[in-house]
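Progress narrative, Year 2. Work on NADH-Ubiquinone oxidoreductase (Complex I), chain 5 N-terminal domain protein from Leptospira borgpetersenii str. 200701203 advanced from sequence curation to structure prediction during this period.
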Amino acid sequence: MEIANLIPALVALPLIGFLISGLFGKWLKRFTGIFSTGVVFLSFGLALISFVLFHPMERTIPEIVTVLPWIETGGIQVSLAYQVDQLSLYMTLIITGIGSLIHLYSIGYMKDDPGFARYFAYLNLFIFAMLNLVLAENLILLFLGWEGVGLCSYLLIGFDYHKETAANAGMKAFIVNRIGDLGMLLGIALVFWYTGSVSFTAIGGAILEIPPFRYIIPVTAVCFLSGRSESRRNFRCTFGFRTRWPGRLPYPH
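Result:
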């Protein structure tokens, strides 16, 4: 087994689970939960094997796993690629390990819910988005993974959309997330403008040439941190206002 084959497989498994649960959950019924949970457990197993093969305590150079060429325009080349290193592997183990346990618990917790298949489709999509977020080799894929996480948060918060509280909370989460996304997009644009690349490998080399305390670094950091703040329940923007979630966040039940 090689990491170049394992990483795309462990990322694709939750996506397959999402498609099967979303398209055929109506007919699979309760088996949807078992299938969706199984693909995440399998993804966790592949993550464990990748962790052992990578030897994270010995290697310091990341391994780039390129799946296919993606964007080629105006001299810009972006590949659908994943960066495997100590941090990304640890995060992959956390996402798939804890995620598989959440799936397993949800089989019993959601057994009587009419949206059983839809719920597991959302969970599988959530795992897929998080894996792309932590394994991305470039800022474009990272941003898409981040957007996927935000979308799944909206879908799960507003899961019981027939309830006004859930629908309102889901919409508020969606709007606040878009404010944070603007900061992240500005950060990506600044990085590309200064380095001419969105690849983390190229960006890392270019940063070494930036003089200490150059304005581009703190400004870009603020932009990315504003994107990070979207995941907080209390979001304070630079203009000084605060928005709070109305009471406790709703959850499927």
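The two ends are 41 Å apart (CA to CA). The first helix runs from residue 3 to 28.
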